Amino acid sequence: MYALYVTHPEVVIDPNAAMPRWGLSSLGKSRAERFANHPLVVDLTRLVSSTETKALELAAILAKGCGAPVDSGDKFNESDRRGTGFVPAARFEALLDALYAHPDESPEGWEAARDAQRRVAGAFNDVLAGHDATRPIGFTGHGTVGTLLKCHLGGLTIARSEDQRRIGNPGGGNVFVVRLSDRKLITDWIAMEDLPERIEGL
């Protein structure tokens, strides 16, 4: 059986609002609505979301496809970037580069990558410790902590090259698959539109 980790697709960027309160854009919602009909989503029996608006909106849309209950927890939230708040795109990319290049350091007050990885991996394992491994489960979250979780599960070095935007859809809305029996990473990032209906290795 499997777990899906799904990142939120496109959002409405509002420099005047806190990033955790940003919601999905019309494009993001339409992508999520189509993905809610995917067979691997329809079979989900539980959804666990970050507490951020965009992830909760994604979970709510997917729940309409599978009828699963939605839980949430702030340990699944995106890496803490309150040290800078909203920054222009070029500076944001430079800070992300630094985050991945020096995972034990805090770029301009951002949560260090290693700390964020420990947080999200611990939360993921805590959820699965109380979950029936014969029942598929979905997680809705974010690109950076999702990449850090992927690296943890796959035994991969923390690196920007593992980022969802370097592998999947650059707008977000990507997914990776984990086998529940041994918590093995089965796929890399895949755009939600491109996720196969059957996954080899499950």
Describe the structure in brief.
With 202 residues, this protein is α/β, with parallel strands linked by helices. Helix content is 37%, strand content 14%.
Description:
Helix 1 (26-35) packs parallel to helix 3 (53-66). The protein has helices spanning 26-35, 39-42, 53-66, 89-101, 113-129, 143-154, 164-167; strands at 2-7, 46-49, 70-72, 137-141, 174-179, 184-185, 190-191. Strands 1, 2, 3, 4, 5, 6 and 7 form a seven-stranded mixed sheet that branches. The protein has one domain: Rossmann fold, CATH 3.40.50. With 202 residues, the protein is an alpha/beta fold. The chain starts with a strand and ends in an 11-residue tail after the last strand.
Question: What are the salient characteristics of this protein?
Answer:
alpha/beta; Rossmann fold; 7-stranded mixed beta sheet
